[in-house]
Fold:
Amino acid sequence: MKEDIFINIIKESLPESAKYIGDDTAYIPEKDLILTQDTMIEDVHFRTSTITPYFLGRKSIAINLSDIAAAGGVPEYILISLSMPKNIGEDFIKEFYKGVNSICKEYKTLVVGGDLTGAEKITVSVCAVGSGKGLTPANRRSANPGDVVVVTGNCGSSGAGLHILESKAKIPDETSTKFIQSHINPVPRIKEGRKILQTAITPAMMDTSDGLADALYKICLSSNVSMEVDFDEIPYDSDINLIVQNENTVQNLVLFGGEDYELIATIPEKAYEKLKQEIFIKKIGIVKPAENEPFAYINFKTRQKIRLDEEILGSSPGLFKHFE
Amino acid sequence: MKEDIFINIIKESLPESAKYIGDDTAYIPEKDLILTQDTMIEDVHFRTSTITPYFLGRKSIAINLSDIAAAGGVPEYILISLSMPKNIGEDFIKEFYKGVNSICKEYKTLVVGGDLTGAEKITVSVCAVGSGKGLTPANRRSANPGDVVVVTGNCGSSGAGLHILESKAKIPDETSTKFIQSHINPVPRIKEGRKILQTAITPAMMDTSDGLADALYKICLSSNVSMEVDFDEIPYDSDINLIVQNENTVQNLVLFGGEDYELIATIPEKAYEKLKQEIFIKKIGIVKPAENEPFAYINFKTRQKIRLDEEILGSSPGLFKHFE
Structure:
């Protein structure tokens, strides 16, 4: 599997860095720094035909804030490296930074630097700096048998939005707009991530940037646990049935869609009871001992059951899916 | 001028960030953080035909360390976002990170994160995190009349190396190797930058990533001072005359070549006398009051004199030259 091979090469090449590789954010305890960096490239991660410069600016920040959210951290500073073709005009830059400014204000985050250079394709690389404010950030390795598995919002909406944009399917306007917004203007769950970290002490946590299934798979593998998840408990917008009629396709969008930027966490039942009074959070399953099979199982009401393993997640899940 | 227009747009779009925009690094005093980010894109900033993956790894880190050096800071952490085409093999990744590891070890800097994704062109975006360790970092705005202008090493060598690589000129092997090394394996002047900051207290400082002339021009403009610089005092490797025969071309390489990653600083005469005992540093001119003309002048022994203004630096100098 290409992902494993690449990660092993990096770990071998950078032996002192090995302990930092594997989570979406790096944590520097001595400085209480949470660091993350993500790159979006035209025609790989987005198309100019389906996202405006304003929302591209917002989304490039949002996906990095989401990584800070998954750590339960507080975002503070942003660096933006923007590369673009010669023919890009002032309007693009104006709209892009207007989008950047709007989301940074919402999350009280300050742009402090970056660079601007030429490229054949629009390329946005953002580095976000956050703080744990006295709490050790969440990671993927802390799930414990007995915990409940929770999610902070609808799964599959972003994937449905992408489907509308790419297929030009005829969907009622209002429905269409709702799903497209989920895709181009995702909401980083900063408040939710922070509450979860404060309440559950050591949750395992990830965002669903690469899909719900991917997050469950990775938490199981990293924590060496198993999970039982009820598909019927997973929150999703039922209007998704207006976008794709086939039930299997609905399930695929919900489980594998990606880019929803909701949070998945494993927390004690007690923390769940407290948290659900304060934020939207939905229990979808429970954590079990791995017993040599550190995988999540999705149970359907048909009594069908699928195991989220390497095979079902494809030959290159997660971070590396863009190579395929 | 495209550069000015773009920077003004960014400042207007991000009013709270305006005070951070203009230096190559951002400084967060509350956390003693020095932050910088630079992106290198295949066929814009480098060609795979002229740099090996190992040296690409080194250089992508070196150019960011050089920004920390120009602040007089101490580098501590690195994030690397590497994007590349599908057909890139394991060997590339192995060699690239081997290069990254070698330079990070030399400068006691730790890679703590990043991401890996697909792209049509190899794209490396690096974020470096440093510290002032109790000292306020240097910037471009602190040059004072009476200061001397100093440089930490040879100018034009990197440009000469690029010239050899691109022209395939027939040069004696040893000479050729020396200049090519300057281009593909630049040395970030961390030690020198730190010493200058410690000794001169508030130097103006920049690296020569965009050329000696560009650094002089920007310090004059930002500090509202003028400079008199003697061309004959500027250190350069005289073997450069074996690469290009025409004297004007030599002068162009020395003044405008770029990518040498030496430091330019303005410091009190006393600090210069002390520093030259400890590091390689060469006085090339003096700082004068601007008197409404905040430009550097280069004096040649022919009594010719050139003024480094917008016109001579081209329509898009510096950071933005890659747009042209």
The longest helix of chain B spans residues 53-70. Confidence is low (pLDDT under 50) at residues 315-324 of chain B. Chain B touches chain A through 61 residues (CB under 8 Å).
